[in-house]
């Protein structure tokens, strides 16, 4: 289970809004002074991520300002990444290969076959992601409550 700590910022119809802060791993890396990612992360603004977390009926909603841990199943994350990146790429390559076999190398049909097959793969991904029974699998869940943050208590 991949987990992230966040803070409840509000209540929605289906659950609570949780805000998480992006964390960079550059502080633990020895190459941080010569790394392009480390340099870019110093200049980029770190915007928090805001996610709606479904809370099942009957469970108490965490209070606004409360720190929580949210998580998503690793296998669901890996499946979705493989589907999102792998399926369009493989379908595009197969479309290009088929177009080359049918029309011959060096023709305009090869990039056109690649582009059309890539678009078809993206449409399949979009259709798959829009199915309601699949959406629940990829949603982060509330794992545990950590309590109120000292800054949030002062604000209340």
From TrEMBL:
Pfam families per the UniProt record, alphabetical: RseC_MucC
Organism from which the protein derives: Cobetia amphilecti
Coiled coil feature spans: none
Question: Which protein is depicted?
Answer: SoxR reducing system RseC family protein
Q: Which InterPro entries does the annotation name? A: RseC, SigmaE_reg_RseC_MucC
Give TM segment ranges. Answer: 76-99, 105-125
Report keywords, A-Z.
Answer: Membrane, Transmembrane, Transmembrane helix
The lineage's top-level taxon is: Bacteria
Signal peptide residues on this chain, from the entry's feature table = none
